[in-house]
């Protein structure tokens, strides 16, 4: 996404929109000043219709619509205005609006009208980013945000499964440092949980454990867990009810895993459609060290020095390093050849 940086003609009509939850504050102006009094329009089809009526009376050509991107408040209006006026919507970050307010002498006081004045000031200078260029990044952010929520839910589900398994089979689901731990997401962990739900905490046979493993589990691993299970204390008196709850929670956990895997494929496609230099740190995206020769190649071609980049599938890397480092070139338009966007 490139900054426009081309000053507008004084006759160009600028619509500054400061989004709100119920009402959007709107200024309509050109180089001579306000064309109408500032108005607050509802965030609905009626509000868009009123704005179109104002523009039909006072705008000869296509207006420039400057909108502050505040969370998701702006999304509905921006989408509709871009559909009605393709290429006319300009996006501004709240930090840009604040900087403009400071230049206008009102940085310490934030009001809707001051934000609209700042948006008009920025748009008149040709600042901002076209909404069409940001749509791919917005879709990527939405997918990553949704995945982040699912990952949080998965962590809670894993903790609940461990607690339920420990209640059914005391000592079987031991934490790290107290014997071999049971990774819930692994084929071994899923097989152990499935057996605990099927047999209400009673030790399974080796064949039953192997049959419920969704992936590869070695014979030695299966024998270890069966032997360890038989050494545990017996299940509680309400084991049948606990087993039914565990079975339902295990089903929800598998559904979460499936949803996260589907989102990762979606994010891979969305990431490939974006420009690498505009991406920032995203949760669930990893970084690995580049070979020394590749780092030297980046520096010799005029790229900023980076100690890390990635060319591996980002979802398979350790959770401790799940970040994405995107190279920004010193000259506009250049991207680091060692930065991957999928």
Structure, described:
With 342 residues, this protein is of the alpha+beta class. It folds into 3 domains: 14-127, ATPase, nucleotide binding domain (Nucleotidyltransferase, domain 5), CATH 3.30.420.40; 151-257, no CATH class; 275-342, no CATH class. Helix content is 46%, strand content 10%. It has 10 helices and 9 strands. Strand 1 (14-18) and strand 2 (23-30) form a beta hairpin. It is rod-shaped and about 85 Å long. The two termini are 18 Å apart.
Describe this structure in a few short sentences.
The protein has 342 residues and is α+β, with helices and mostly antiparallel strands. The chain has ten helices and nine strands. Helices cover 46% and strands 10% of the residues.
Keywords:
46% helix; two-stranded antiparallel sheet; 342 residues; alpha+beta; 3 domains
Helix and strand arrangement:
Elements: E1 14-18, E2 23-30, E3 33-34, E4 39-42, H1 45-58, E5 64-68, H2 75-84, E6 89-92, H3 94-103, H4 112-124, E7 129-130, H5 131-168, H6 187-198, H7 206-211, H8 219-230, H9 239-272, E8 288-289, H10 292-300, E9 308-309
Helix pairs in contact: 3-4, 5-9, 6-9
The major beta sheet can be summarized as: 7 strands, mixed
Overall shape: it is rod-shaped
Number of beta-strand segments: 9
**Per DSSP, what share of the residues sits in E-state strands of 2 or more residues?**
5-15%
Second-tier CATH architecture of the largest domain: 2-Layer Sandwich
CATH H-level superfamily title of the largest domain: ATPase, nucleotide binding domain
Return Rg in Å. Answer: 28 Å
Q: Tell me the domain tally.
A: 3
> Residue ranges: pLDDT <50 for 5 or more in a row?
277-288, 298-342
Q: Which structural class do you get from the secondary structure elements?
A: alpha+beta
* Count of helical regions: 10
Span between termini: 18 Å
Secondary structure: helix percent: 40-55%
Mean model confidence by pLDDT: 78
The CATH topology of the largest domain comes to Nucleotidyltransferase, domain 5
SSE order, as H and E? Answer: EEEEHEHEHHEHHHHHEHE
User: What's the CATH class of the largest domain, please?
Assistant: Alpha Beta
């Amino acid at each position: 996404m490139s900054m426009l940086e081309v000053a507008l003609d004084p006759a160009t009509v600028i619509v500054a929109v400061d989004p709100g939850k119920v009402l959007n504050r709107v200024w309509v102006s050109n180089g001579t000043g306000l064309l109408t009094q500032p108005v607050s329009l509802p965030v609905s089809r009626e509000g868009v219709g009123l704005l179109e009526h104002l523009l039909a009376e006072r705008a000869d050509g296509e207006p420039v619509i400057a909108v502050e991107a505040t969370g998701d408040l702006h999304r509905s209006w921006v989408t509709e205005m871009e559909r009605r006026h393709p290429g006319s919507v300009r996006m501004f970050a709240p930090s840009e609006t604040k900087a403009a307010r400071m230049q206008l002498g009102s940085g310490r006081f934030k009001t809707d009208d001051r934000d609209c004045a700042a948006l008009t000031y920025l748009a008149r200078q040709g600042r901002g980013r076209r909404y069409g260029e940001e749509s791919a990044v917005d879709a990527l952010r939405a997918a990553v945000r949704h995945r982040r929520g699912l990952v949080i839910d998965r962590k809670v589900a894993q903790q609940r499964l461990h607690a339920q398994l420990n209640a059914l089979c005391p000592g079987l689901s031991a934490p790290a440092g107290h014997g071999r731990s049971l990774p819930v997401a692994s084929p071994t962990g899923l097989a152990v949980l499935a057996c605990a739900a099927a047999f209400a905490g009673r030790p399974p046979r080796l064949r039953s454990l192997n049959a419920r493993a969704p992936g590869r589990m070695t014979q030695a691993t299966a024998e270890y867990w069966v032997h360890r299970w038989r050494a545990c204390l017996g299940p509680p008196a309400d084991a049948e009810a606990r087993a039914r709850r565990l079975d339902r929670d295990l089903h929800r956990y598998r559904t979460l895993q499936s949803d996260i895997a589907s989102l990762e494929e979606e994010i891979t496609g969305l990431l490939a459609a974006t420009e690498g230099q505009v991406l920032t740190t995203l949760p669930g995206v990893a970084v690995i060290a580049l070979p020394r020769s590749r780092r030297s190649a980046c520096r010799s071609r005029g790229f900023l020095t980076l100690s890390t980049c990635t060319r591996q599938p980002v979802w398979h890397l350790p959770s401790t390093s799940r970040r994405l480092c995107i190279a920004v070139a010193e000259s506009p338009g250049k991207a680091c050849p060692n930065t991957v966007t999928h």
